[in-house]
Structure formats: structure tokens, C-alpha cells
Amino acid sequence: MAALAAASLLLSAGCASEDGGPASSDGSPTPPAGSASSPAASSSPPAERPPAKGSVDVVSTLTEKLSSPWGLAPLPGGDLLVASRDDATITRIDGESGKKTEVGTVPGVSPAGEGGLLGLAVAPTYGADHLVYAYFTTESDNRIARLQYDESKPAGQQLGAPDTILRGIPKGFVHNGGRIAFGPDRMLYAGTGETGDTGLAQDEKSLAGKILRMTPDGEPVHGNPSADSVVYSWGHRNVQGLAWDKQKRLWASEFGQDTWDELNAIEPGKNYGWPEVEGEKGEAGYVDPVAQWKTSEASPSGIAYAQGSIWMAGLRGERLWRIPLSGTPGQEPSAAPQAFLEGKYGRLRTVVAAGGDTLWLVTGNTDGRGTPKQGDDRILLLKVR
């Protein structure tokens, strides 16, 4: 009965899953030409953007046979931590050999639908405190906790008890957000979803459908729109990608519903429109995306910045998008987005900068929506330019 109820909920949500809704046969990306902070400036047709020119080479497959991988966090020294959404485990991957060592299980995780153990982040102070942060779904909510990673203990028993720094993020069968990352300001950011309850995205008192900014202890940060709130921006449907460019500008990927997936330039206190608008509308009071895609071409999850571009992993779209940046607000993107690896590795969940011209890319074919191939899921090392 539980499975039937879950399926019924998903069907009643229609296009509410992370894979977006049905798209027209015209699946070409459409980059709006206006400033992310000034929707009215978006007047040039997409055709004026020249095509991007770049390349992606798969250097190697670091590791294979991962189960529902979601969050990925590099450790000092080059190894990686990867979260299993459905198993609630964190595994360490040797950055050279790909050897897998289970670190431990995060207690209290309740995986269902798009919930479970999601984003991971390593504290900027990891060298001193060995703290790892996790975003996960419980029976009652989504929350963020920090856990101490003690490498001296036996494998599988190296995680300390979760110290919850933020609780009460609304949960749903869909749209739980889940990406967390430390910014250049050493503060912790989190992307949340509106759980399928669209009104929460416009409710500034709710933590759902938001980008949050907090101290490492989970407290509001000076400079947030409201001094007593961790809410940084709102009007989001389901944010699963966070990254900063070399100018320390925050970028976020967002799932659309029927029509447009988005890449947004995030500014504090701005409203990104959902559910009042989807994609580029040029309506006063809402921020237009910098680039948008038909949902069949993207359904974006993780993003990373490297070599002057945002790189965006597509789930339903099964491709890696490059969005070249000019560095000048109002002139983004500098060229039309360019797709790579289309259909070659299936669903792509997470992409993380590995330094210089390299990226780590995590596939997502064992999440219940993909068609796993032999070896799935895997982490790939890419060289990009």
C-alpha cells in the first residue's frame, strides 16, 4: 500500500518530479540575454549569442558500482567522499586508485522518493576539526547536520553522531533540494525545494523553495536579507546546484516544471519567481534566469565552475552542459550553452571542480529513474576547456 500511495502521489504531482515534465520536440537551449538582476534588460533574441566552443575529454573512470550516489565532497589531499541517497552511507574514494572504503552510516535518514542522504560538504576548517556536513531527509523534515570523521577508527565506524545545525526544512516525496556548499565567505549555503507545495516558495518565512545562507553553526549570517533568518533568496522550485565563479558570484541550477529549467545568478533578497513565473518572463519583481532549457534537455542537478564556464549535470537530459561566462553582469552567458556526453553515460547527478581544467562527474542511473548499465554508478574524471 505504501508503494501504491507513493506512486499515486507522484502521478498526482504530474510534472513535479526532479525530471521535469514533458517538453516539446524543440529541445534547444535558450539563453536569455538580459541581466540576472534586471529582467527588463532581457530584450535581445537568443540567436544573437554565438555558439560556444569548448571540449570535454573523459580522462578515466575513477570508480564504479556506486549505489544511488548523490553528494560528492573532495577531501584535502585529493580523496573524495560520496553519499548514497538510499543507503544513507558515506564512502571514501581514493582519488588515485578509486578504492572504496565505507566511512559510516548517517543515522536518522529516511529515504523515499527524492529524499534521503543528499548533499555533502567538507568544512573549510577540516584540517583542524575533521567535520563533514550532510543534508538529509528524516521522517519529519529535511535537516543539515555536521559529523566528525575519525579516520583512526575501523572502516564503517568512522562517523561521529550527527550534530544538527538546522532542522525544520520542509520535506516531500519530491523536491527536497539537498545541495550544500561552503562559499568563498566560508559560510554554508543550501538549496532547498518546495516539496511540491508551490506556495512555500513565495513564503519568506518558510525554508522551502529557497537558497539558505548560514554560519557553520547554522545561524543567520550578517548581510542576509533578514537579520534573524537564514533565507538568502526565494521563489525557487527545486535547487540542486550551487557554485561560485572566479568573481565570487553565486550560481544555482533549478528544475522547471512543464517548460523551462534554469541557471540563475543569485543575489541576496531577490525573488526568482516560482510558481508565478517559470523561465524568462521579464516581469517586474522577479529575476529572470541567465540561461534556460527545455526540461527534456536538462533537468539539472549539480553544477561546478571551471575554465571560465559553469558546467551543469543533466539528469533527464543525460548530458553535461557548458555555459560560458563573460564575467560581466548583463552579458551572461557569453555564448550559447554547449552540450557534451549526450546519452553516453546516462543520467548525470553531480559535477565538482577537481582543480584547474578537471572535473569530477557522478552518474545517477541507480536512483530508480535511470537504466543502469554494467558498472553503474560511476565517478568520471574529465578534462574540460
From TrEMBL:
Top-level division of the source organism's lineage: Bacteria
Domain Glucose/Sorbosone dehydrogenase as annotated: residue spans: 66-369
Pfam family for this entry, one: GSDH
Low complexity composition-biased segments: 15-46
InterPro entries: 6-blade_b-propeller_TolB-like, Glc/Sorbosone_DH, Quinoprot_gluc/sorb_DH_b-prop
Location of the region described as Disordered in the Swiss-Prot/TrEMBL record: 15-55
Protein name: PQQ-dependent sugar dehydrogenase
